[in-house]
Write a structure and sequence with these properties.
This protein has 391 residues and is mainly alpha-helical. It has a domain of 262 residues. Helices cover 61% and strands 4% of the residues. The chain has 16 helices and six strands. The strands form three sheets. A two-stranded antiparallel sheet has the order 1-4. The chain is globular. This is O-antigen ligase-related domain-containing protein. It is found in: Membrane. Keywords: Membrane, Transmembrane, Transmembrane helix. It holds the Pfam family Wzy_C. It is a multi-pass membrane protein.
Length: 391
């Protein structure tokens, strides 16, 4: 791999949790007078690194090998999925937001192909350097935010959210006896930070970064990320994953406040109703918040327009039966490839996706998903593939 591409990949991993982005004009991101952040087209700092990596790859005429028939089939299904969702995107009430999200899916799919073609010892070496550093600086910032109960610098510091204890809608917890603002790092939500930390703790072999990352993960109080971190412990007995999922869903009913549970339930019902009204092709990519007011009025202190907190219901509502069927076929084939330990990151995100939407809707989550799928595809099954490469 060219030295410049290595540098770009290392920078991408280091800045993976960054929420810094250029926000395109927002006239198409308004729903019934409310500006919806999820509909705003954004060009992230990390997009620069991905696009540069892909351009260098294309210029070298490298192509991902299609050695196995099932991979060829998956690629054909993927092309069908992109064609269907592109046409559907152009027919939505907010086509700019839908098309921008479609472009993001294309970008991440190409990035997965690049990882699959290039993930060798030099990439693992870059991960071993960049990932612990990313955990260290995110954890240090997050811990400082927790004790200060506000942000430190502001958005131009790699996307750090502006917040304090009085900010409307800020994530808080009362488990310590009084309301405490949860740490964000430079991510858009403590749950996103927790998801990044959970996967990094598993992939990293740095004792310092794993220890500091675990402390920070506990401060986020993200139940889904903590449950996901247990996946490596139960991986030797795959049947234990089912009880873990049941435990997560049950525990969430007791750790979330009544208002939060009610909102999640309303979003779930709205997602099912959207699918029933648009069974084949769904409402279109990134259109859940556009259609939401037609199905329910979420009770909250401010107008609540968010995607359903379940990636499976979100896919069903936005891509319909045809879209989610294609995704499931491709995904099942993905899980048949590679060794079990390299599949653990994607399984961790699958667990998180039961109670949150960010693996699909936010840049950091999409990158975690892309890297996880790239890891799964990069390592063929072999008798000696049970060991995760030392990071």
């Amino acid at each position: 791999m060219a030295m410049l591409t290595q540098l770009l990949f290392g920078l991408l991993i280091f800045f993976l949790p960054s929420n810094l982005a250029y926000h395109l004009p927002v006239s198409t991101a308004i729903v019934q007078g409310t500006l919806v952040d999820y509909l705003i087209p954004k060009f992230y700092l990390t997009d620069i690194f991905i696009i540069a990596i892909l351009l260098f790859w294309f210029s070298s005429f490298a192509r991902p090998p299609l050695a196995k028939l099932k991979l060829v089939t998956c690629h054909l299904l993927l092309v069908a999925f992109f064609l269907i969702t592109l046409i559907r995107s152009l027919l939505t009430p907010h086509p700019v937001s839908a098309f921008w999200f479609w472009l993001k899916l294309v970008e991440m799919s190409l990035f997965i192909s690049w990882i699959r073609s290039h993930l060798k010892s030099d990439i693992y070496h870059l991960l071993s350097k960049a990932l612990p550093l990313a955990v260290l600086w995110q954890s240090t910032l997050a811990i400082a935010q927790f004790f200060r109960q506000s942000n430190l610098i502001g958005y131009w510091f790699l996307g750090e959210p502006l917040f304090n204890a009085t900010t409307p809608g800020i994530a808080k917890s009362g488990l310590a006896g009084s309301l405490q603002v949860l740490p964000y790092g430079t991510t858009p939500h403590p749950n996103v930070l927790a998801g990044f930390l959970a996967m990094s703790i598993y992939l990293s072999r740095s004792i310092l970064s794993r220890s500091l990352g675990l402390v920070t993960l506990l401060l986020t109080q993200s139940l889904s990320a903590m449950a996901a971190l247990l996946i490596p412990l139960v991986s030797k007995s795959k049947l234990l994953i089912i009880p873990l999922v049941i435990l997560l869903l049950t525990a969430s009913r007791y750790t979330l406040d009544a208002d939060s549970l009610s909102r999640r339930h309303q979003l779930n019902l709205a997602a099912v109703k959207m699918w029933l009204d648009h069974p084949l092709f769904g409402v279109g990519l990134n259109q859940f918040t556009v259609y939401l007011p037609q199905y329910t009025e979420i009770s909250a202190s401010t107008r609540f327009l968010q995607p359903v907190h379940n990636i499976y219901l979100l896919l069903l509502a936005e891509t319909g039966l045809i879209g989610i069927s294609i995704i499931l076929i491709i995904f099942i084939n993905f899980l048949k490839i590679g060794n079990w330990k390299l599949k653990i990151p994607i399984i961790m995100l699958m667990i998180i996706g039961l109670v949150d939407h960010y693996p699909l809707t936010l840049q950091t989550g999409q990158l975690l998903l892309a890297i996880s799928l790239g890891l799964t595809l990069s390592s063929p099954k072999s008798p000696n593939s049970g060991r995760l490469p030392e990071l």
